[in-house]
UniProtKB/TrEMBL annotation:
This is 4-diphosphocytidyl-2-C-methyl-D-erythritol kinase. The gene is ispE. GO terms for molecular function: 4-(cytidine 5'-diphospho)-2-C-methyl-D-erythritol kinase activity; ATP binding. Residues 74-145 form the GHMP kinase N-terminal domain. Pathway: Isoprenoid biosynthesis; isopentenyl diphosphate biosynthesis via DXP pathway; isopentenyl diphosphate from 1-deoxy-D-xylulose 5-phosphate: step 3/6. The active site is at K8, D138.
Length: 261
């Protein structure tokens, strides 16, 4: 069976505080359904196999981590788990890495939903979200199956947001943004009191994404990670200037996006 995996965009992203070693966020996540996507193929296999141009060892891949987390959950709930070891997974990668589009998380989240269907595991959505929570920050959104949601916490709190489908243009420059380093830089700017934690205005949470993108809000105000990203990768500032005010910054970068005309 074949599954299409779309990237996500952050319409807005605010860092609202800190909990232990993790920053807490409040963001609008949307699926960017269009020409950019990964494609996952599931099949039966004699042993678990994972193929794709991931750029990491299998043990570090979020799909593999999702398989392990799913197996642990099934075993803990006295459900049959051995069929997971007879899965063949192959992904045709197109979503770029280090781009703020959630490519790895998207693979893991869709994998959970896909395997639940492919193997007829019968897991409910709340169970899939419970499994997704500890795999990676954005995995829960993709496991939810939502197209638009207000997301908070570490990314595990999903509040579905109903809005009409939108179409976006995405530009990803040849710059790999390390999300861990961007968040670390944000933490440094907080300690140096160059920036402050902030909540999004309440009206952002209830406003349609198209409306928010039409207001001309500066990039650094819409996305708290824009400033630390350009501090680490100065070329992004020039790119942002060349693109213009209608282009916004997704996640920890390096992708910019705008509504398609």
């Amino acid at each position: 069976m074949s599954y299409i995996i779309y990237p996500k965009l952050n319409i807005f992203l605010k860092i609202i505080g800190h909990d232990g070693s993790y920053h807490q966020l409040c963001s609008r996540f949307v699926l960017a359904k269009g020409a950019l996507y990964d494609e996952m193929e599931l099949s039966k296999s004699q042993s678990f196999t994972l193929k794709g141009d991931f750029g990491c060892d299998m043990e570090e891949n979020l799909i593999f981590k999702a398989k392990c987390a799913l197996k642990a959950y099934l075993l803990a709930h006295a459900k049959e788990a051995e069929r997971l070891e007879s899965l063949g997974v192959e992904v045709q990668k197109s979503i770029p890495k280090g781009a703020g589009l959630g490519g790895g998380s998207a693979n893991a989240g869709v994998f959970l939903r896909a395997v639940n269907e492919f193997l007829a595991l019968g897991l409910k959505e709340n169970e899939l979200l419970a499994i997704a929570r500890d795999i990676g920050a954005d995995v829960s959104f993709f496991a939810s199956g939502e197209s638009s949601a207000n997301v908070s916490g570490r990314g595990e709190q999903i509040e579905p947001f109903i809005e009409s489908p939108l179409f976006y243009e995405i530009y990803t420059p040849p710059i790999f943004c390390d999300s861990t380093k961007v968040y670390q830089r944000y933490g440094t700017l907080i300690k140096e009191r160059c920036i402050n934690y902030s909540n999004p205005p309440q009206e952002w949470l209830s406003s349609q994404s198209a409306h928010l993108l039409s207001l001309g809000i500066p990039k650094e105000e819409m996305n708290d990670l824009f400033s630390p990203a350009i501090a680490l990768y100065p070329a992004l500032k020039d790119i942002a200037s060349e693109l213009g005010s209608e282009w916004y910054f997704s996640g920890s970068g390096s992708s910019f996006f705008r509504l398609r005309a």
